[in-house]
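Narrative of accomplishments. A recurring question from our advisory board has been how the design workflow behaves on a single, concrete structure rather than in aggregate. To address it, we present the structure tokens for one chain from the evaluation set, followed by the sequence designed for it. No filtering or post-editing was applied between the two.
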């Protein structure tokens, strides 16, 4: 996001020369507006792509050229105004001035001084073919090489697209393509055009306030109306000290940034993880939701998690940058003619289902899924009882696109006493044809804890298992190593939740909850779980230990009832009942019945039972005298009978028979 720059004064002679130059441009103008009484409706799509910035944040981009120069990967930024490009990418057809524009980005933390110039901007395919181009009147800022990025594979230009000025390159496209634009990143498109009322009627729109054009001392030929797009009235809600908090802040929909509160003072209910007189680069620990009121009702505004927080007056002390996550969920309309921003959810029906397996090299090992880590295919255990992707070093033969920090040491201990040690890595994970970039743990040793020296460490690496993908939604182990579940880190609707079916004949994992695949589930609400102080999760945390009543046989055959918390855990081989007397410890005999009852919905009950047996991950059961924070670990048993749904966005679990 770019904020207001400082402006360097220029000489009277420079202004005279600029005025003369602009007069020439105006005389050569090919016309940028149409007849409002007889408008032309047309649109043209430019392909978009993504890249990772230095903070491993996904950014949206397209390909452009300036002054008929070379093709350049260009960030699409609805939080800034100018087209900004590094000097070596600029072609010969450019008129430079001696006016300095010291641009300021990232709520005042990043400065990019450059020279004001005028040229044409072409929108290109990845191979360099021109799709559409502007006239030669676009005001651009030329910066030194490496000023935008020193990494070759990243962007070296920024396409500013705010509506508060007459500077954006979009305004210099031929009519009618300079009237409005849509960002359809779920379908990898940037669409320019003049859209009909029937097209726009599908969007929930909100009206902006017309404002003076903030052209930042640059002379421009565009006469478009300007709008205060940093003043969207977005409502933010949270629970704090057992009360619902709701506040409205001026908000910017910024495709080039992460979510960030820029408020002075920061409200206590954000529960920012740093304190002091001047808070910078803190993170919000509370669960904060955002919504925008439109002509079609309220729309949820998905925020980037964790949310940043800065106690700053830089943008007036009452502003929130909504960040770019919302563009993963919506097609977003920007109407420069009428001053409207609109949202259309064209991803809510998107999901992907991948097969699971219980068998690895002929051995029953519990639920596993094949992922691709970079270009490396790896079978990992799908574990609802642990957190984060943790992969054996031996499974990674191709380190292309994977970065690692062997000095960033990580340790993780499982309940069965297995201790893994290793280091931090980052790279792309693919599952079912979708890909995201995550932090994960590379395991270089597997040992046992001192408390359980005979732990089953051999099973951790048995039969081709390459690691564990923990998808638990809370942080009960109080680990804050920054290695979180990959599933809620996929983009758009794929991140809102998942369904695990452990049906023995056709086990499967579905990413992305839709109105269709949620039918028939009995839902149980979860309690919010507080984020750790450091290394906050990139998704909402929920307490997945559920209250339930169980009935189970003691060693003498009599039935015992207890009430407590239960954890549904695909990674555990036996239904395990804890807090048992020492004379009750042991395997529960075959042929006996265990019942479990939970409340779901508003008064309904989810009641299920199974007959004990000797098959691990199916019907084996055990009584233990350990005293963890739950009464029961169900193991994988219920997953063989039920599809179990995890709603990451709204904090629910659901249950539906899969037999």
């Amino acid at each position: 996001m770019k904020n207001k720059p400082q402006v360097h004064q220029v000489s009277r002679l420079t202004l005279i020369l600029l005025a003369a130059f602009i007069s020439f441009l105006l005389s050569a103008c090919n016309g940028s507006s149409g007849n409002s009484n007889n408008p032309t409706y047309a649109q043209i799509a430019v392909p978009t792509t993504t890249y990772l910035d230095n903070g491993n944040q996904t950014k949206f981009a397209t390909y452009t050229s300036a002054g008929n120069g070379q093709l350049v990967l260009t960030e699409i930024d609805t939080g800034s105004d100018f087209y900004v490009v590094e000097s070596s990418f600029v072609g010969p057809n450019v008129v430079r001035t001696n006016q300095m524009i010291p641009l300021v980005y990232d709520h005042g933390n990043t400065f990019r001084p450059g020279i004001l110039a005028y040229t044409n901007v072409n929108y290109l395919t990845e191979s360099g073919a021109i799709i559409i181009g502007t006239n030669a009147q676009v005001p651009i800022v030329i910066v030194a090489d490496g000023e935008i990025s020193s990494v070759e594979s990243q962007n070296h230009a920024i396409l500013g697209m705010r509506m508060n000025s007459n500077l954006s390159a979009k305004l210099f496209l031929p009519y009618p393509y300079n009237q409005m634009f849509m960002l359809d990143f779920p379908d990898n498109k940037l669409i320019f055009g003049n859209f009909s009322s029937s097209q726009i009627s599908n969007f929930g729109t909100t009206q902006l306030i017309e404002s003076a054009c903030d052209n930042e001392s640059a002379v421009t030929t565009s006469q478009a109306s300007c709008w205060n797009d940093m003043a969207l009235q977005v409502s933010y809600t949270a629970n704090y000290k057992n009360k619902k908090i709701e506040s409205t802040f001026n908000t910017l929909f910024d495709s080039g940034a992460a979510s960030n509160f820029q408020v002075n003072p920061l409200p206590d209910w954000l529960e920012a993880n740093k304190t002091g007189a001047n808070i910078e680069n803190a993170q919000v620990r509370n669960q904060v939701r955002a919504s925008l009121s439109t002509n079609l009702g309220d729309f949820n505004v998905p925020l980037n998690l964790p949310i940043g927080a800065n106690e700053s007056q830089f943008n007036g002390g009452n502003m929130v940058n909504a960040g770019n996550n919302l563009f993963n969920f919506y097609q977003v309309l920007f109407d420069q003619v009428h001053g409207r921003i609109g949202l259309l959810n064209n991803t809510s029906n998107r999901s992907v289902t991948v097969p699971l397996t219980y068998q690895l090299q002929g051995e029953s090992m519990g639920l596993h899924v094949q992922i691709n880590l970079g270009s490396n295919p790896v079978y990992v255990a799908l574990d609802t009882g642990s957190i984060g992707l943790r992969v054996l070093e031996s499974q990674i033969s191709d380190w292309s696109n994977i970065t690692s920090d062997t000095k960033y040491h990580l340790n993780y201990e499982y309940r069965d006493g297995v201790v893994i040690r290793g280091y931090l890595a980052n790279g792309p994970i693919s599952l079912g044809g979708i890909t995201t970039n995550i932090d994960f743990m590379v395991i270089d040793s597997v040992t046992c804890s001192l408390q359980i020296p005979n732990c089953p460490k051999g099973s951790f690496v048995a039969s081709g298992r390459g690691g564990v993908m923990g998808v638990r939604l809370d942080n009960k182990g109080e680990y804050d190593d920054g290695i979180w579940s990959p599933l809620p880190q996929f983009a758009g609707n794929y991140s809102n939740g998942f369904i695990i079916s452990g049906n023995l004949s056709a086990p499967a994992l579905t990413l992305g909850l839709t109105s269709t695949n949620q039918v028939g589930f009995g839902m149980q609400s979860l309690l919010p779980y507080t984020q750790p102080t450091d290394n906050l999760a990139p998704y909402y945390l929920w307490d997945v230990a559920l209250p339930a009543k169980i009935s189970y046989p003691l060693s003498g055959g009599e039935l015992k009832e207890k009430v407590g918390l239960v954890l549904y855990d695909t990674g555990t081989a036996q239904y395990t009942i804890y807090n048992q007397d020492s004379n009750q410890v042991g395997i529960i005999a075959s042929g006996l019945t265990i019942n479990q009852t939970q409340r779901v919905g508003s008064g309904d009950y989810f009641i299920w039972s199974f007959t004990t047996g000797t098959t691990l991950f199916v019907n084996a059961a055990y009584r233990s005298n350990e005293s963890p924070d739950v009464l029961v670990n169900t193991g994988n048993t219920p997953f063989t009978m039920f599809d179990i749904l995890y709603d990451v966005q709204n904090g629910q679990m659901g249950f539906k028979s899969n037999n």
